[in-house]
Specification:
Blueprint lengths: L1 H13 L14 H15 L9 E2 L2 E2 L1 H13 L7 H5 L14
Length: about 100
């Protein structure tokens, strides 16, 4: 269930409307998937804590923020609202979650 939530949150961030600068660490999908799986494994079992950004407790947007910062050297906004304001919006029929 947490992996599904992670993928949903990452998809949500990826479907936003102002694309960040292209990062070479995101150009190889196999590497990206490996990094995401490793990050998920590292954080598995961490409790949810509103506003949290540590292994003592983390919230969804904090986890996305830390994942992009630590794994892909990309600085995203901290909040869900601000994260949803970046990237390029796509229709549901163009998404991977069909």
């Amino acid at each position: 269930m947490r992996m599904g939530l992670l993928l949903f949150v990452l998809l949500l961030v990826g479907c936003s409307h102002h694309a960040p600068p292209i990062n070479s660490r995101l150009s190889d999908s196999i590497t990206v998937i490996a990094q995401l799986r490793d990050q998920l494994g590292s954080w598995r079992g961490t409790p949810y804590r509103y506003g949290g950004m540590s292994r003592g407790g983390v919230d969804c947007s904090g986890f996305v923020y830390l994942t992009f910062r630590d794994r892909f050297d990309l600085q995203l906004p901290r909040t869900t609202s601000a994260q949803s304001d970046i990237g390029t919006r796509i229709s549901k029929d163009r998404s991977l979650a069909r």
